[in-house]
Amino acid sequence: MPCEVLIKAWNMPNGTRKGSFSVIRDQPWNWGHMEALPDYVQLVITDASRAQVSEYTRGWMTEYDYEVINHNVALDGYRIRLWSKYPNVSGQNVITKTQVENYLEGWNGIFQSASANEVVFDFGIYQCAISANFWGEWVLNVGFTEVSYDQGTGVHVIDADYSALAQAEPSRVEGVVLGVGAEIISHDLENKIIRFSVDRSLVTSKLKADIHDVLSKRFEMRRYLIMESTVDAMIAQGGRVEKTKAEVLTYMRDRLTE
After folding, report:
1. pLDDT in tens, 224-251
2. Residue 115: domain span
3. Which CATH number is 139's domain given?
4. Predicted TM-score of the model (pTM)
5. Residue 25 forms beta bridges with which residues?
6. 183 shares a domain with 170
7. Fewest CB atoms within 10 A around its CB: which of 144, 167, 180, 232?
8. Three-state SS string across the chain, please?
9. How far is CA 71 from the centre of its chain?
């Protein structure tokens, strides 16, 4: 089944580039009067369905991955290398210290080094488990003390003194502790000290999810673009052309290869 593609005919202030696949529809389809020149050109791909070319509407994303360089079991500390998954050949969309430092310091991470498309941070599990990013704003007026750490199980037992929290309700505090996945061991209501345990795997899974979910963002609207000269040729032909998928691929730019 043929499909129809609406392609941007010029660079927009919001970052959408000339040559971007804006919308794809399977035929039969009728575009509105605003979905034409001067803003868009219409491309009919005669031998491909919407599903077969939908990848070309994919955004160029900033996403990070990481690996553990070493693990100090005695201290339960990790040295982690992070890098950008989708840089291009010319060095755009790489990871830098500036991009991630403030957020990872919110996990009590300590910067170690940076080089081309990589940064290295140290993280301690206990330090992560008492960090602002692990708990949220609740942690700001709470005093933490590590009671014990079992190297074999990776379980940290921690006391949280929340006596400085204004109008702290014990049930709400317990809800916060349980909400992050910790297990309550005891609760001294008089002194407002709650003891809980946190497993190493809980902390590392939350940190890994944060690296992927919180730090990910769109770098540019589209990873793939039709060459500007081809768009100009489409405009010169009246703004509506028919091509095979093979022909379209010869006009396609993959930003990662540039």
Report:
1. 999 999 999 999 999 999 999 999 999 9
2. 61-124+204-218
3. 3.30.200
4. 0.82
5. 4
6. yes
7. 167
8. CCEEEEEECCCCCCCCCCCCEEEEEECCCCCCCCCCCCCEEEEEECCCCHHHHHHHHCCEEECEEEEEEEEECCCCEEEEEEEECCCCCCCCCCCCHHHHHHHHHCCCCEEEEEECCEEEEEEEHHHHHCCHHHHCHHHHHCEEEEEEEECCCCEEEEEEECCCCCCCCHHHHHHHHHHCCCEEEEEECCCCEEEEEEEHHHHHHHHHHHHHHCCCEEEECCCEEECHHHHHHHHHCCCEEEECHHHHHHCEEEHHHC
9. 25
Q: What mean pLDDT do residues 127-132 have?
A: 96
Q: Is there a single domain that holds both residue 26 and residue 69?
A: no
Name 64's bridge partners.
Answer: 84
Residues 187 and 230 in one domain: no
Count of structural domains, the chain: 3
- Flag whether pLDDT at 167 surpasses 80: no
Q: pLDDT averaged over the chain?
A: 95
- Closest to 95 (Cα-Cα) out of 226, 249, 246, 216: 216
Within a 13 Å sphere around the CA of 207, how many CA atoms are in the beta-carbon half? 29
Do you know the residue count of the chain? 258
Task: Enter the tokens of residue 9.
Answer: 């005919």
pLDDT (tens digit per residue) in 181-233 = 999 999 999 999 999 999 999 999 999 998 888 888 999 999 999 999 999 99
**pLDDT at residue 232, rounded to an integer:** 98
pLDDT of residue 158: 98
Same domain, 101 and 209: yes
Same domain, 111 and 214: yes
